[in-house]
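Email to the structure team, subject: TPR-like protein model.

Hi all, the expression group asked for a predicted structure before they design truncation constructs. Nothing fancy, just the tokens so they can compare against earlier work. One-line instruction: predict TPR-like protein, return tokens.
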Amino acid sequence: MLLTAVDRFPDGHPAKHACLNLVGTVSESCFESFGSLEDLETAIKAATRAVELTPNGSPDMPERLSSLGIFFHRRFQRLGDLADLEHAIDTTSHAVSLTPDGHPNMPWRLCNLGGFLGLCFQRLGKLEDLEYAINTTSHAVSLTPDDHPDLPMRLSNLGNFFRSRFRRLGKLEDLEHAIDAASRAIKLPNASRAIKLTPDGHPDMPKVLGNLGFFLGSRFQRLGKLEDLEHAIDSIGRAASLTPDGHPVMPMILSDLGSFLSFRFERLGKLEDLEHAIDNIGRAASLTPDGHPVMPRILNNLGSLFSFRFERLGRLEDLEYAINIMSHVVSLTPDDHPDLPMRLNNFGNFFRLRFERLGKLEDLEHAIDTTNRAVFLTPNGHPVLHMTLSNLGDRYMSRFERLGKLADLEHAIDTTSRAISLTPGDHPHIPTTLSNLAGLFTRRFKLLGELDDINQAIDITSHAVDVVPDSHCHMRMLLNNLGIFLHLRFEHLGKLEDLEHAIDTMNRAVDLTPDGHPDMRGILGVLGNLFESRFECLGKLEDLEHAIDITSCTLSLTPNGHPYAPKALSNLALPFSQRFKRLGKLKDLEHAIDITSRAISLTPNDHPHLSERLSSLGNCLMLRFNRLHELDDLQHCVNVYSLVVDQPFGPPSTRLRAARAYARLTWMGLRYSLITLDQLLPVYEKVLPLIPQVAWLGNSVTRRYEQLAEFGEITNSAVFAAVFAGDLSRAVEWLDQGRGVVWGQLLQLRSPIGELHRHHPNLAKELRSVSNALESSGNSAGYASTNLVDSTAHSSYSPIDTHVRNEPSARITLARRYEELLTQIRTLNGFESFLKPKTFSELRSACVDGPIILINVCDRISPAVALVVLHSSDRIVPVPLPGLSYKRAEQMRSLLLESLQQINVRQRKPAERGVSMESTHRSRFIDVLGSLWSTVVSPILQVIEHLNSSSEALPHVTWCATGPLSFLPIHAAGLYESPDPRDRIFNRVVSSYTPTMSSLIRPYTEKQLTSSVSSPSKRILVVTVSQPNTPGYCPLPSTFQEASNVKKQFSSDETIHLDHEGATVDEVLREMRTHRFSFIHLACHGVQDPEDPRKSAFILYDGKLHLSDIMSHSAEGAELAFLSACHTAKGDAKLPEESVHLAAGMLTAGYKAVIGTMWSIIDEDAPVVADGVYRRLVGDQGGSTGRVAYALHEAVKELREKVGEENFVRWVPFVHFGS
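Reply from the structure team: attached below.
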């Protein structure tokens, strides 16, 4: 009404603009008193008209602009419309620009402008607004006298802006500036200027105290010093006591007080702090009008507190309330609001908690999606980004545990590693974030078995435990994790000190966990498992009783329907089954079966732990069958293991163990007529594809061999089953697939892809790139590392040496991409079988140089059987070997090994320091070679000679033996006490060896296969090392004569001879890269690395020439590698099916033929054999490498005639591999 009256004045009336200004001031006062929005609208209209009618240059203009800015600000506070805040900034900026320097109102207007800019920063997150606010408010403070009553408020505002910049940039000096500014307003012991500017009773005292408390609380969050938190709670508590309920700042004071009480709860775990926090923030929410801009912030804090209480007390209604509150908060927060990322982060955490409580996968998906959105909306460099990333990593880990997808684990490691890289070294969250990363390494260890992962996890967590006080609420979690990690390492290495350390650690965790805390069940579950493991280790029954008592308690603490229930049941079943094994009480086994069945019924079908629980049930049923011999148990057991094998989820090693048991049970099922013969082979069809999944390309080579050592005999059992069923072609295919797995993987990576390149060049290019990278990743000597924590950031972290091992992640990523590419290529027309295992029709082409004889020796099934594969007729002829069993083959291997050890055959050495065949050792050799003749060779030769119609005097055969037989010299078998020369194998056939049939099939052109070895384009690289002064190795003087014997067979332009000082690693590799050689002859010492055969090496003048170095260059056109060194075809007894020796490695590197040695040779013998081999090869105008076997056969004959037939240790070790 008043505005209408003033508007009747003509615009030119000299008093109109003054009257309008007065109307605006009065209306704004009415709004402040009564809260009517209509009054505020009138004030803005009147003030706007007053500004429009005030002449330019009028001294009243700055004041009227300033008033208008305040009115716009009031409406923004009420309605949250960003346009009002923009108008407030513009009009106040204009007012400041018109205010002369020295004017008494300049500080006030600057302070208002700074406040409006600060609000704009809170709303939009633009750093330039905050910088302008700090500069403007700093200017206002500098113009304000120390005794001015508004200085405390201005200092408090300035402190707020510094604190906001700290939250954005993370610079600790900003937080210190904020505390100093607030300390100037009231008298504090540590104030930089202890001036009591705010008298008791001053209306601004609550806000000043509240701000100071807020800043101190922020410093606590940054540095973790408990005294800062105590001072913060005291300051804000005092502010709350001085503030009336109706005061507009009361909700924020109460909200801040609740937040800091919750921090103290998180730190000290006192439930009363949490209850007080909920009361204060609940009261703040009740005092805040609907639609007020601070309501989302208050509700966000309230939702967090309810989630804390859920975690502490386990009441689901608290979590549901938290989710409902946060849903409302997120809906109230604009997309461009700077606080939205943190609110989304909290929201995601609540979904994650509900997933853990109810097990619903959709909650976990919501958690990941919400947190991913939070990360996306958080600017790079924002100080809270590391927290959001850490939470995202935790949620990926949860999904990995639920679904078992390796991609989620790698995402979790990458995300958490990035979080740590963004976290200052002195940040209080760093120990728990590092522990999270350690947990991820542990999960990768459980999946891939890389020992470095678990070692690193233990180191990281041990350091975190050392630097975190016992009073910290996260200490029990750190101790729990450390106990789990130590237990895993104990299970892997069997070191009792790890188990004892784990038990002590978990007991400490129990002591620190309050009764009734939800974490107690998980901690007790781990402790129960530890006692069960100690029982298995030491056999003390009291440990088993402890395990049963503790795991029973764990189950009683787990609510019905809780996702932890299946795990708690599984933990309890194991000690019951162990007690049955120890005491034989059937009721214990019945308990174990019932409990495990309950656990399985509660486990989702797509859960990765289902396979482990099913396997446990199968084991228990097998125990009961062995006790009661009831066929129902056997049938049930077969069905359970079948389910495990068919599971697409869970660790491949678990499924393969179950598959092995499943296969064994099928034989029992046949005996009891529970299954038929036609059901036998489908079992193995499921089993064999699991072997390359266990020995996966994403694993290190060492780990692949560890896994194959456990599961190698499965292939032999499968081959026997195929022979038993009469499917001989499948037996051949399976034997080829299951032997030399690692070499086969390397060969596959090197396979030519010309056909693919012609039709799909881009796919071919990427496949070759990924294959090369995979092979290179396996060749690296160690892990690359990236330091995650700036150890100089804080003295307490200077001892830590925390690294993320990049190689496993990179190798896993490459392996996954390689598999994806193969899957994609196999969908293309004409490429359906691309790089799949070879069929028999493809394998039979390996028999071009004569029959291949596959001898299968099975650990559990006898007798052995040989499969003679004939190229000419495409036939597979089975030859039963009734006199040969696995046990007999192992006895022969042990007898031979014992003799060689007693003879001291370790290195190539001169004869005078070498070996002599004493009568005892000669007798043992005669026994072994005679047994080989009668049980293996003679029955097979009878079949071959019956089938062979060739007129050739000595046919060529290639042996592919399995099990212990692969370490025995089949090529020397014979009855050496018999006068009949035909009772020696070398008078009947020429022998070669091969790891697999596939390794004989080379993708070379016909031109390469038929080229002459004496062609001028072909060269031989001769490397000899006499090593007169190499510590630990015998001199090799005969290598000079050996080199001379080789060189004289070739013209000078066909050979390159590197000798002694010239035979360095770099020089040999340089020559191999520069020239294309037909032959390479290495006369030196050799060493075998059974853990990673690519690290097996030849000892050159200045170091080791590793097999991986040779494999790193192209061997195109390479025909023969003559390895005149010790143990180059020895192998590893733990891996009989893998041909872990240098000769097989050179075949994989691309050489078509390899001459190696089964044990150390006499130095003087090498020149004789070398001369005989090359003399015959050069004289053979056909020149194909298929004649290498004949050349070696004749050369060894010369040596045998020279040293004596029964001096076996000298002529027997020379062998030929390949074609």
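Confidence is low (pLDDT under 50) at residues 187-196, 780-805, 1004-1017, 1181-1185. The first strand starts at residue 785 and ends at 787. Ping us if the truncation boundaries need rechecking.
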